[in-house]
């Protein structure tokens, strides 16, 4: 179902994603991080939908539909390294920093900060080209830490 999209996303020189494709790719990344600890909780599902609704101005129903599509894309997407690097090449830096912030919201939504989620989020931030200080500030903004 997503073969053409993934082919375009992982092309040697990917084009900038249109807003619909960017939403789907970035939401799939939220799903990937949420699933990384093998405990894809209802809290994480709700947080992904809340983020999608807020970021993209979607109704609850449309946010739920986007999450379902993103789950399908995430399941078919290549390894995290290729998938994330492709997003890096197609999405502006400010948007990537905002994605790191959203990823932290998902990781922290179930009240448990699993080592698998932490490790994947560090990898994703690096692969997205988001600096360590920007990633740390994104986590602090979400967690309310100083």
TrEMBL record:
Residues 23-140 form the Co-chaperone DjlA N-terminal domain. It comes from Sulfitobacter noctilucicola. InterPro entries: DjlA_N, TerB-like. This is Putative tellurite resistance protein B-like protein. CDD domains: terB_like_2 (cd07313). It comes from the Bacteria. Transmembrane segments: none annotated.
């Amino acid at each position: 179902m997503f073969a053409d999209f993934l082919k375009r996303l992982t092309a040697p020189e990917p084009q900038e994603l249109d807003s619909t494709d960017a939403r789907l790719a970035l939401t799939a990344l939220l799903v990937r991080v949420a699933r990384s600890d093998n405990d894809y909780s209802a809290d994480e599902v709700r947080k992904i939908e809340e983020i999608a609704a807020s970021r993209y101005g979607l109704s609850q129903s449309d946010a739920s539909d986007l999450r379902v599509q993103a789950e399908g894309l995430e399941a078919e997407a290549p390894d995290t390294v290729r998938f994330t690097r492709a997003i890096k090449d197609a999405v502006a830096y400010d948007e990537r920093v905002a994605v790191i912030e959203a990823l932290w919201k998902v990781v922290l939504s179930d009240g448990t900060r699993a080592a698998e989620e932490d490790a994947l989020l560090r990898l994703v931030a690096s692969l997205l080209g988001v600096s360590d200080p920007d990633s740390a500030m994104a986590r602090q903004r979400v967690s309310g830490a100083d």
